[in-house]
Amino acid sequence: MKLRAAALALLIAAVLAVTAPPAAAQCAMCKTALTSSPEGRGLAGHLNHAILMMVFAPYAVAGTVAGVLFRRQIAARVARLLRRAR
Question: What pTM was computed for the model?
Answer without folding.
Answer: 0.47
